[in-house]
Amino acid sequence: MASLRLTAAQALVRYLSAQNTEFEGEPLPIFAGCWAIFGHGNVAGLGEALHGLRETFPTFRAHNEQAMAHAAIAFAKQSRRRRFMACTTSIGPGATNMVTAAALAHVNRLPVLLIPGDVFANRRPDPVLQQIEDFGDGTVSANDCFRPVSRFFDRITRPEQLLTTLPRAMQVLTDPSECGPVTLAFCQDVQAEASDYPEEFFAPRLWLPRRAKPDDRELALALAALKAAKKPLVIAGGGVLYSEAERELLAFCRRFGIPSAETQAGKSTLPVDEPLNLGAIGVTGTGAANALAAEADVILAIGTRLQDFTTGSRTLFANPDRQIIGLNVQPFDAGKHGALPLVADAKAGLAALARGLAGYKAPAIWSAKAGKAQAEWLAKAAPYTATTGSPLPSDAQVIGAVQRLAKKTDVLVCAAGGLPGELHKLWQAGAAGGYHLEYGYSCMGYEIAGGLGVKMAEPEREVIVMVGDGSYLMMNSEIATSVQLGLKLTIVILDNRGYGCINRLQRATGGESFNNLLRHTRHETIPAIDFAKHAASLGAKAVKVQGVAALEKALKTARRARTTTAIVIDTDPMASTDAGGHWWDVAVPEVSTRREVGAAHARYIEAKKAQRLGD
Ligand SMILES: Cc1ncc(C[n+]2csc(CCOP(=O)(O)OP(=O)(O)O)c2C)c(N)n1
Ligand SMILES: [Mg+2]
């Protein structure tokens, strides 16, 4: 058996570069490359190995480990989990900087390969720089922080371990039900150690997306429930997009007259002008989707985790006889909320359901209700995005301007703050994949780095990042990376001088405005942060505009530009869209010296009565 003498790091990079997927009949590397920030723990071992294969397995340098992992995760999300990236860090702070991103990928079920450097397996130079010393457990290192936020974790302490660990890592990354972050903590001495690897370990390998078909009995039960449905409703989650099932879903809804509503991850699944598309559902939902959700008797939840924002913290599906069908590749999700599980890929599941439902049609009055509710909602929502000429526009008015200037193929990227709720309700996605919201972890700082990953996945589409001042300040360094890599972003920064949405939440729970907007913080001076100058200093074209008309002009210029543009606009921290939406469970203090908290608590206790628990 022929063998190759390689360091463990060389073997790892060589193996990764031999893994392929298929795109339109052609093989394509499944890894788009590796993000790397070097330090001790990866520069000598992995650094040398990545350099050796830099032509076929590109290495990208970012400015922050969390941010580079955000870019990698966004790449995987925008690639609908068909392709992904690796990320390597030094030991210690470089590694733990990436833990938040691992959690983000874990929550959102997105594949990413994380390779933090680790301490010496041979322990000879212990304690090394940045080593966590556990007094009672010699096997603990900083990388153990990754365990609860990894779908698969391993520590590479021997070179030959790669022969079993890497195929397992690939299995997790490519399995639609298991997929999520894989962490391989790579001891730095092992990275540099040579070993004889069998040549066939590096033979090109093809990973095809697996489409699990439903079980016969689960299918029969789901069909029986649907056939009896008088008010069926689909919830389209991210799984519909990952399964590339949007056309099948549209055909399914039309054929059987079933209205459909979208989660944050599922938004952009159906065309916005489809009368059966009710738009956003849940806490940040449209009046249309939420009205039908309250009555629905059978809810076909496809590819969704049914998190609290989708279910209104278990109060939205108010029909006492309602039955949920959980069509999901992951049994954990398929069985939530007492659902009849239908464990399958969305596309395969929809095909099986369609075959079995032949002859069924939802009552015409119910299907028609969807179109009517949608038209009513659009009329109700329109004034929020219309321009008023106010010098301090609302987030919704800024969204209106971005929308008017957007092309159908554009991708809108966002993650945290007040914007996700406003966008979920109001944004009209032009095409599938045109709405990229990280709302599983809703991580401030994802936006710009995420936009970079989106642009890498779909360079031909314009990527518009909308970000609040708070999120921007938390993480903005990848503006420089976007300039460096020639990956153009249009970044709209909404400066309401603080954490507007948390201030509003604080007020809604009876609290005094405190520690959220800059003016409510302990301060000597409120800093007048010049976001345009800041973005310009990182290499972006940047402009500050006043009001919506000037914003529209700047957006036109940004579209023509070839490089990353930041547009800063001052916005009103108090305004938000009060139409639509639904109750969300945020625990209010039971006792307080504040009268307002007492009143909010009484409202809270009342609202909680609508929660359906126990299934
Ligand atoms: C990393 C992280 N820290 C804290 C939070 C909690 N949080 C959610 S939104 C928000 C404020 C966001 O401020 P900004 O980006 O300015 O948006 P705005 O609320 O003003 O619309 C905070 C602190 C979070 N989601 N992520
Ligand atoms: Mg803000």
Description:
With 615 residues, the chain is an alpha/beta fold. 37% of the residues lie in helices and 18% in strands. It is built from 24 helices and 23 strands. The strands form five sheets. It has a six-stranded parallel sheet. Strand 22, helix 23 and strand 23 form a beta-alpha-beta unit. Helix 1 packs across helix 2 and helix 10 packs parallel to helix 14. The chain is globular, with a radius of gyration of 25 Å. Thiamine diphosphate (TPP) binds next to helix 19 and helix 21.
| Strand count | 23
Q: Number of helical segments?
A: 24
Question: Spans of 5+ residues with little confidence (pLDDT < 50)?
Answer: none
Briefly note the structural class of the backbone. Answer: alpha/beta
Write down the Rg. Answer: 25 Å
The profile of the biggest β sheet is:
6 strands, parallel
Major sheet strand order = 5-4-6-7-9-8
Tell me, briefly, the overall form.
globular
Compute the average pLDDT. Answer: 97
Bound molecules: thiamine diphosphate, magnesium ion
The fraction of residues in strands falls at 15-25%
Relative helix content: 25-40%
Cα(first) to Cα(last) distance is 56 Å
